[in-house]
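Recall the central idea of this unit: under ordinary conditions, the amino acid sequence of a chain determines the structure it adopts. In this exercise we apply that idea directly, starting from the sequence alone.
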Amino acid sequence: MTSTSRSFVLALLAAVLCAPVVSADVLSVEIVERNLIEEGQVFGDVGSYEELVGRITFGFDPDQPGNHAIVNLDRAPRNGDGLVEATADLRILAPTNRRLGNGVALVDIANRGRLTALGFNRGGNGPYGDGFLMNEGYTVVWVGWEFDVPEGRPMRFDVPSVDGFPVGGLGFAAVRDTTSWIKYDSEATVSAQHTLSFGSSQSGRFLRTFLYLGFNSDTSGRKVFDGMIPHIAGASRLDLNQPGAEPISLGMFDATSFPFSDAALRDPVTGAIDGTLGNDRSRENQPLVFYTNTGVEYWGGGRVATLVHSTPDGTEDLTLQDNVRFYFLAGTQHGPGPFPPPPPGNRQEMGNPTDYWWNMRALLASLTEWAVDGTEPPPSRYPTFADRNLVAPAAIQFPAIPDVRSPADRTGGTRVANPWLEGNDGGGVELPMFIPQVDVDGNEVAGIRHPEVAVPLATYTGWNFTNADNGDPNTLVALAGSYIPFPSTRAQRERTNDPRQSIEERYSSRDDFLTQVEAAGRDLIAQRYLLEADLRSILDRAGEHWNLLMDSN
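Accordingly, the structure predicted from this sequence is:
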């Protein structure tokens, strides 16, 4: 319970509210807290919100075909009804008056117990920020899926073990069955006509694996999610559904295996034919999918985002399926760094502060419209071989900025084994690596360019090298990008031999800069990559950015 929330008395003063359950897979739900959010704050036309906190208990049938993908479920202990039980944390944000919501449940796949979808709420006023998700009327749902979440964090998942190893694959079924319960069970604690999911980084890899294993069909054969956003996952999946799995691990260079893309393609290494959405488990009930990635997923961590939209050998562009869009967030890093950027610390450059969440809000709105009323979303935006803006690292045209190390010698790491492929799985084979090309300033030219990337005061990258005082200076810092400000003046540029134009040479004044930023923002709004209501915040930040770099000169 947050300091700004107030508990109110539950029915009959009970400490636990048991919801009647008629779902075949959800055995019981216990709501142990019910809190009015922000002391009854009103969120637009939706009104007040409440937070429900409790536990949900599942009964999984090992003989049900929809559960056959769960490794060792058939060997797990069963209750008297022959079901394998597991219990998870459950948390729900819902309009107090359910009828005022938008009819959409957004199921957020927690990342190591962290509630990632709250990133859509911007601003510094606690976890709810400016209340974007609530103002839009979403019911937001979290359910524990990860058995190794550390003590003290929410969204834990208690599962049985076999031979001392947790049956981790039950996490996929927990998300599936919670969502199906909300979508199809008239007696569920909350209900929704449409269901979306969001997962970021580790939990984005969860969603890619969820799709690959066929969990978007529930045990009655119905579609679970209408749409989803696997965010900053690249071409990777998750180590969860096998004995000894460690989903909480960072998954660097050990999470990417064939297949990489959605379509069923032939692996040039093994000859196997497979696809994330192109196998017998996953072909039915496919959701609408937005893949969103930053430069980090192209450059580092073995996530090789190119392979989501290219052939497995990285030589040709793929045509994405009609239900799939891919959006590259140019000039950003895995998660936006703080602004103003602090000193580099263990990195050679300051962290990249570009706030891509403004673009993500517009994409969530588009995915919602696509799922609810069929409105086509904005076109995919990402680098391609055809446009010659997707290149090998050695072909990167990064400017020779003084004291900035070039990333042109990077490699993609090696693929890992895929236990679902028989015989030679290609584990250990080097992954092909191709990255977004840059302009004369070192800024990526393809994708959705945030207004401050399109009208820059700095070079923004998806890579950053380790400071020599903290380790090998030839090693990339995990998940980090760089922020390298332009010289403020021509004199400074000439003094340092910086090849990039100075700020004073680019813009006649602060007003000129902000006018260009606004024009770039309005262009994105017209193309539906930015919401009109969010432009003001971007302009305010751009003004602060100008002051940061120019007021000291």
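The two ends are 47 Å apart (CA to CA).
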